[in-house]
Amino acid sequence: MAVCEHCGNDYDKSFQVVMSGKTHNFDSFECAIHALAPSCAHCGVRIVGHGLEKDGTFYCCDHCAEAKGVKGLRDRI
């Protein structure tokens, strides 16, 4: 068993995620998302899908990017 690094639960069905060469232990996808997924720079939602990125800043959709003054990004081309 491994302890979830987000919530601290010691769970027999925990799993590992390797991101940027570092191994992380979680007990659920929910905890993995909270710990590893980037947040939208405008609305703060965790970006679980592809999202959009401009100069290292992440947005969940083109609406949020445009609200921050970023032009030209589209989530459907």
Q: Shape, please?
A: elongated
Helix content: 10-25%
Average pLDDT figure:
93
Spans of at least 5 consecutive residues with low confidence:
none
Largest sheet: 2 strands, antiparallel
Characterise the protein shown here:
The chain is elongated. The chain starts with a strand and ends in a 10-residue tail after the last helix. The model has no long low-confidence stretch (mean pLDDT 93). It folds into two domains: 36 residues, no CATH class; 41 residues, no CATH class. It has 77 residues and is an alpha+beta fold. Strand 1 and strand 2 form a beta hairpin. This is Prokaryotic metallothionein.
Fold topology:
Elements: E1 2-3, E2 10-11, E3 15-19, E4 22-26, H1 29-36, E5 52-54, E6 57-59, H2 62-67
Antiparallel strand pairs: 1-2, 3-4, 5-6
Task: Briefly characterize the structure.
Helix content is 18%, strand content 26%.
